[in-house]
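Form 12-C: Joint structure prediction
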Amino acid sequence: MWRWLHPYAKPEATYRLVEKLLPWFAALTFISLVVGVVWGLAFAPADYQQGDSYRIIFLHVPAAIFSMGAYAGMAIMGGIALIWQIKTAEWSIPAIAPVGAALTVVALLTGAIWGKPMWGTWWIWDARLTSELILLFLYIGVMALYFAFDDARTGAKAAAILSLVGVINLPIIHYSVEWWNTLHQGATITKFERPSIATSMLIPLLICLAGFLFLTISLVMMRLKNEILRHELGRPWAQQELEKN
Amino acid sequence: MPFDSFQDFIIMGGYGLYVWLSFFLSFVVIALVALETAIARKSLQKKSQQLQNRQQRLAKRQRSVSQ
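Section 2 - Result
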């Protein structure tokens, strides 16, 4: 496995791999989001309690799950960067953080808009909402720290450490609905028993989840390509790459 | 299909504003990230071109000095 992985420590090799995979992930993103969103908006049945307002779930849940998933990915990259000093892992931190922050913003916005008709309020300082807001601040902190040093590698190390420390927030977000009293409903699909959601709603939700996974990967890949080129700007292969279009 | 007409679909049982607003805002946020990434690539192209021009100028000057 190491023999297979080692070439990707070379930035150009990683760039070529990402370049090859990106169109596939972009196509998967497009197909699954169109199918999932159209199915969820137009064909899934209305909820017997929440009526049609529940359709926000098809954005809210995937965005929230991958706001945490992206953070976990960023922390793993931070760990790899610290332990093995692999530059492409360092550069993936500023590639992932803005995407994760955007997903967090989407989760918070859709949650607020869903909360208004169902709870009667846009925002409440309860555990789930507050811990998700802290996730947004962690993303912003990681980005700020990454660019706060004159020496880029020092900044990358600091950002990697912060991203690892911030992992403590992930179980807090996930279990916040069990540990504290909250307006937010409990887990419906991320639990070990049978999901407590009708199959006719679960299928489009799973398609939207896949769509957001592919979307996250595609955006991160686009940004990682930029990060690699930014650091390799003086090299002939990067110059040729940038002249192509 | 849960909706009888297209108008029903837009109204969303009275929750139309909330549903469509959340979908619109989500799209805007994601599109901004994609747009920023595309702009960053354009500015990298510009920087790379400037760097190459500079290298060529320097090489030219070096040649004229050595002659």
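Section 3 - Comments
The helical segments of chain B are 6-11, 16-66. DSSP finds two helices and no strands in chain B.
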